[in-house]
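Lab meeting minutes (informal)
Scribe: AK
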Amino acid sequence: MDDDQRLEIIRLLKSKEEISPEWARILFPPEKREYELVYHGKEREEDIIANTLAVPLQKVRTFGKNGDGWHNKLIFGDNLQVMKSLLELKRAGNLCNADGTPGVRLIYIDPPFATKKDFQGSQEQKAYQDKIEGAQFVEFIRRRLVLLRELLTDDGCLYLHLDIKKIHYMKIVLDEVFGESRFVNEIVWKRTSAHADSKTFANVHDTLLLYSKSAVFQFHHQFVPYSEKHLEERYSHIETKGPNKGKRFADGDLVGTGLRGGGYPYIWKNVFRTWRCPIETMRKYEKDNRLY
């Protein structure tokens, strides 16, 4: 606080004038962080968690055999209050995974995009309003991110899905809430129906930001079979002899000129080059009939 601010707060107190909320960050500055957005209406994380009310969940309908325990629930209501209820379940040991770890291992959120529009359901009924903007929008999402972080397991991850208008704000907010070191990746989702605008660059993608709760997190690799076209183009050669006769293979240049780290200079088959692999590996390739 500088001298002018001190004089102003003294004047306000003496005159018994109302002190605006903006003075809170001056009188009680938060812990300084490497990344932090400062804007009107920003609450302390402690206040968000403490002041959010939990609401009891009431069963309305049950589908099939679901309904036992906390899992497989579709909850209708204010997600902020619902998350506080789930957080209380976690603290009580009643929000656990199959292996007994407390909390939620995977969270994906697709919040409003600050479009300033009303959205309708499939039968023209009102679904939700997306008219929050500016600092109010940023704090609307941040309050939920704080509670979501608390709900995650220690090895859990969160995916946030937004478009180009607000994703850059949320990157800074997520760096602040989770820590920059917990940023895992940015995933670009290209829209299939996107088209160019002749007046400017087209808006053709959404973005997903992936953050982890800690340095150790679960990630299960997903694999799909190659298409026949990819196999024919990428693996264009067919082995003509040996135990792998008839199988497709791809060729790769073993010359390592310009390779990071310098490569391995030596003579192979009377040819001196800087190779990608040491001579021992080259000999193994020849023994395994992998040189083409």
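Next up, CB showed the second protein from the same session:
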Amino acid sequence: MLTVSPADARNALSVTHGFISLKKGIGGILEVFRRHQCVQSDPIEVAGRNADLTLQSRVSDYKQQYLYDLLYEKRHLF
């Protein structure tokens, strides 16, 4: 039987969800979508839009304009 420490489990989850070694800019956003393929996007912004909150935690220099450009200008995402 394999035993995993709580610290090892936390580290594995952090790596899997992309919280370690954050990427930058538009390339970082595309990397998040390659990994996750889906991010919920809501028009309601209470503490921030869900897509922005998700990407801010995974892309070191995230800007809302980057996502807008990928969605509506370059049409790399939908």
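CB comment: The radius of gyration is 15 Å.
No objections, moving on.
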